[in-house]
Structures
1.
Amino acid sequence: MPQGAGTDGLHEPQFALHVEDLTVSYHTNPVLWDIDLDIPPGVLAAVVGPNGAGKSTLIKAALGLVRPVAGHVRYFGQGYAAARRRIGYVPQRSSVDWDFPTDALDVVTMGLYGKLGWFRRPGRAARARALAALADVGMQDYAARQISQLSGGQQQRVFIARALVQDADIYFLDEPLAGVDATTERTIMALLRRLRDAGKTVIVVHHDLSTVRRYFDWLVMLNVRIIAQGPVSEVYTAENLRRTYGGQVALIEDLPPAPGAEGPTAEGGQDGPR
Amino acid sequence: MTGLAELFQSQLVQTVLIGAALLGVVSGVLGSFAVLRRQSLMGDTLSHAALPGVCLGFLLAGGRDLGSILAGAFLTGALAALAVVLITRTTRLKTDAALGIALSVFFALGVVLLTLVQARGGAGQMGLSTFLFGQAAAILRSDLWVMAGVTAAALALVAAFWKEFKLVSFDPDFARVQGLPVLVLEIALTVMVAMAIVVGLQMVGVVLMVAMLIAPAAAARQWVRSLGAMVLLSAAFGAFSGMAGALISAQARGLATGPVVVLVASALVLLSLLLAPGRGLIWQALRARHDAQRLRGERVLLTLHGLGAAHGDPAYPSEAGMIDAFHGVTSRRALARLQARGLVRAVRHPPEETPHWELTDSGRDAARAALRRTGGDVEGRAR
């Protein structure tokens, strides 16, 4: 756990998420190397990078699900344990067994278990909140539906509703648009924009470079190390894409116009690893 | 029949039945969580690993003392679980390989110890071999208190931490993010499974004990829509198989209880897999047939619609042979079903003698709706 000295005093409270020197390795292979990352509050941020770049691991390390070998993470200046109530999480849809015997409403209610505390069952108020969250993602008609009978896009929306009832200030979403239909994608992005407009910070692991500029206002480019970070307009450059993705950039449709100079917040001087 | 009534009044049979019911309930409840967490093979490893502990308990106590036998079983079961964790953490072997290794090593050790105990001779060694396949008749009235205690404790824990166990079983990462002590909860579930196994050893035996965890839960899953219903039904299935198996094996001399219990439970699984509404194989086959018929009917409808459009007459009477030729198969039954639904009607079309069919008004609407749904050209021909 990243527990630096002085958990009482706030450390870098101006950032919704502050990551410093974070390194994660599996069996001596670094998956994330020396990550320094600052995300200001109130942005809708994408984390992009090729397969194996460590995008999911970055989120899991920030959430304490993966133990880093070095570094620390702060939320609004606080450590993870202190800030836990302000954090919402939408894991990858494939991370659970959707044949679990339960319905959509029950899954959304699970987002309230942490706040309910021990020995307390979710009551009418919890049910109402879960129903409201389902309505927010356009799933109010599916509350009683078995989760095994939902489509992929509907399952994804149930997961997002579960994070909504957490009523967090900063949300992490791991590939929320993977394998969903166009309608769901529009619904989800409209919802994430509303969250951002309400002052929340939304961090999304994203795989579709062609929509980065349309959907997001902040961008983190990752390939084991941080390649670049900052406002999309400054960071989304052909040069940064090449450094992040290597030769695969030819596949990207939405290449930005050739930039005069590299984005000012891009970290210069560091070569992306091969 | 009088034989059966006498049987129920016998104290031995009562003891066996109560014991089997208790074991069925506790393993049914905990098995639900084990199956949903994909931990059922852990149960198999734990139960096989209990055998060396049974023998050690016997050797140390110098006789068939249930307390030391159960303690030994629990101890070696825990050691096996620890071995699995260590193997997966320190090597690149996956969980299934680690479980297999721990299971076979501990069971081999148990068989060797069992042979040693039997070679030494002694009054109790016959009783020891019942731990392999179980012998319900070996249960004593005093054993019931142990079984009832374990069952009550497990049920109380599951009730008290219901929502936590549910979330840990469904999505452990999300549970951790909400601040739940996931590791403690997972260990609690595993320890409870180990307790259930230990109390079931006498009755079902180490070899087949895992079936008492898996089978009732797997059968129950087919019928339910919530975790609560699954746990309750699984407990009922477990109790039923336990009691039925104990009764049947008590009828035949020397028939081990474990295999009979497992066969009863497996019959429940088979029936559930076949019959359960929605998930059962028979139900699914019927639905697939229904879907195929609906699809066939829709295609015939679209053909009629297309022929009508091609002839500039929506009510164009199509000759049955033409429809068959278009589809390459006979469409008589599909047409009969459409007729029953009021979508087509049989007409005469002199001078031809052959049967003809035309769309009714509602048939035309249905064809257009189908075309719109599949993105076809409503006024044009069927694709």
2.
Amino acid sequence: MFTFTEEQEMLRKVIREFVEAEVAPKAQEWDEANHCPVELFPMLGEMGIVGTFVPEEYGGAGLGFVERSICLEELARHSAGLAITVMAHQLCMGGILNFGSEEQKKKYLPDLATGKKIGSLSLTEATGGSNFMGQKSTGEYKDWQWVINGRKCFITNSHLADVDLWTVITGQNEKGKPIMTAFIIDKDTPGHTAGRTEHKLGLCSSNTGDVSCVNVKLSPQQMLSQEGDGPKIALSTIQEVGRAGMSAICLGILRGCLEESVKFSNERIIYGKPLNKLMNIQFTIAENKLDYESAKLLTYRAASMKDKGLPCACEFALAKYAGNEGAIRAAKRTIDMMGGYGVINEYPIGRFLRDTLAGSTAGGTSDILKVVIAAETLKG
Amino acid sequence: MTHQGIWVVAEQTVSGISRVSFELLAKARELKEQGRVQAPVTAVLLGENLDDYYSAKLMEAGAETIILVDHPALRYFQNETYAAVLKALAEERQPSIILMGATAAGSDFAPTLGAKLRTGVSAHCVDMRLNEEGHLVAVVPAFGGKVLGDILCTNFRPQIATVRPGILGKVICFMHKQCPVERFDITDILAQDQGRVKALGITYEEMKGVPLEEAELVVAGGFGIESKEIWQQLETLAAVLGGAVGCTRPPLDEGWAKESQMIGTSGKSVRPKIYIGVGISGATHHICGMKDAGLVISINKDEKSPIFDVSDIRITADAAAILPLLIEGLQKNEDDVIC
Amino acid sequence: MALNIAVCIKSVPDPKWYEKITIDTKTKTITRKGIPSIINPVDKNALEAALKLKEQYGGKVTVLCMAPPGAKNELYEAMAMGADEAALLSDLAFAGADTLATSYTLAQGLNKLGKFDLVLTGTESADGATAQVPAQLAEWLNIPHLWNVKEFVLATEQEIHAKVKMDDAVGEYVIQLPALLAVSREINKPRYTTAMGVMKARKKTLTNLSKHDLDVNESLIGQVGSPTWSGDISIPSLARKGQELIGTPEEIVTQLIAKLRAAGIREGRGMVNDASGNLGSGRTDG
């Protein structure tokens, strides 16, 4: 049975205080203006919210994934858009932390962990995210340099990132299979540009768009790990950092739905009585609570397994699936309960529904997650 | 019990005597009647240049004897000096009850006096009475005014209590013509002052219009005032109606209003004839500062605002929609100016 | 110069939950079940002021709290915010204390912990809001104090210059160290507690002090040492039977102006000149 330590409880309390003061009052405004609040990043860095799992020697808080999930849940409770911005930034840090050389870690992590710089991971291409071996971007070694060409799409922080991790195909092995390799690209490297910005259904206070490389020349020091390590880096980062983060973000949205439903049913008077006296409303509350509590247990169990170094790919898939689907259900139920109020933007519940729908692809759609869960389960 | 009589510690202000001093004298006279107290109600005033104006005003407000402590050293409030003087006086004369205004000075030196005399102090009372045994029962708010509790101090004397300005409200004009006025010499007490705190001076805030506590009409704004422009409309409305402007915490934090305009348990208590709350949701601590208003009119776009539960007239609307129309409507007819 | 600073904090029920407070009508006690405790908000301003001084001049910040054992969470939080150590004064014998007994116990705690150049507190607690402990604590410690301080600077090693909020005014004072300052919320914006701070806090020292650890006169602590005691408590009902004005904004305003006119507008003018109105308006005779 999973329980939080006293430190973790206190961490949640202080992060919540911060989020309620600095994030909650502006979340709706950011959403409506499609504004990603990057101006908060230095403060988030100081708080230890962006560099949660980065060791202290590299400027981070030196904590684990349970603590990271707590921070992301609290952020997403009020702004899932900001939370996914942080999460995508952590993908970049996770890649460098787990696969980078000592020089690369020293060069990049301190500024990223303290929120002075923003990171991104550019993996997905027009061919799709989950079929990442089918990607078309290339890296060619010429005149002691790597020359990168290609276009990535649906990249979170595409227009904001100072440090961009790329995966490209650098050749074929003897069996004719593509060799995928990862590189660290600095924002101002000539030929590296952000393209179109996507207008999304939800998570509107996060930035998503295209990034292109046209004859981007990188020194060999910019390669992350070794040639051919791309799939390992991509898979581990997406599954262990990305999916883990998304499970916590979905959980935060789900808690938002639960708390909004409780607040509304307590305050709304109908036929002279609070709404919460009606049994069908109580069913809604109970179902929201069940969805939240089950996703919570799954999320923090997976995170604590990750902290113990246990294999937890299936556990995170379960957690994200439960959180994302649970949040969709809870948001819909709460909107139904609220009637007209549910669809006007003074209430955040509509935003929660849009955010959770928009968040369904990041870290794997429910169908992909089911494939992961089934594969693990069928092993027997 | 040797301790007897009710004292009111009055306070000198830049323009005379603080109104709360008169409110306390009225209350002291009421307590005296109620408890059939023999000893006269005594007003004690500490300050500088205390001429006949002061004793006349105190007498008119109900003092039956007056002790004036007049010295340049008392020009500015200094806790150490003020408390030393009051301690010496109280030990010598042994009053049973000492009432003070919970002003900035009173809130600070009442507890010091209590500690010096090793007795109890009831802070920020909203009401008080004498029980059958003649003990003071002070009604004090807690939890931002949500809860009211009786505080007693039966085994120690004097019983000290402070009351926030405006809470008692009532000031009575007494018709008696004479009362003994004594001047108390503090040379010896000042000689013992260690000079650990020195007052350098005081700067008064510039006051606009009617003082909030004395206004017959108050227009107050809160969180629902979404911009400085709307706040200025609210100020215009108050000006058109001849009232004072009050606020809750958010306009203060925005820098639109001053600390002295805040209404609530940590600000001022008002009891105007008409209170108009605009964009105020009605947290307990604010309601405690305006609950005694005559007619309460509330404008808030959230129909679930708690302020509506304590309002006589409810308007569920956005402040920005109502204020310009209201100002325009009132200006059309000059007769609508009320105070 | 290094400053040895003590900050006294109180653990209070979170003011956001005051609406949920009820009274047990049988026992006449306040029910605050399920309401979380927090550091009294303005005490965080006191702690922030202490941390800023430490950053500027060096020294140590010790946080002190008199409360039941559960308040250790608030003390850890204060250490997470940056305080160096903490002490919890906790003993059944301290229970039921009014401000006089509380301030006496805090004073004995401070005396036990060492010699402090500066003691900082908030102006008042959110729950009781008597604002009396700072002045009384200074009295027991026999040091000078200022209450409602909105700004201060260390002018010399021995002196602080402070601005104090008065009624519609600001007073300026010089106070000698050692001293106590009770600060108001506008003095600063308390820093946020960081994740790193939370993790460091558990490695810092929290000392538990019971009455046996302190040099206390038993007749001055707890209920015995409290001159005041509580009688009846109640939750007053302030409800008014309201009338809703409905319609378009124009229609609402027309109704409202009629209501204002009906609400004794003429009487309002008359009242200003009666005897009671005169008294507060200051001297007019020059």
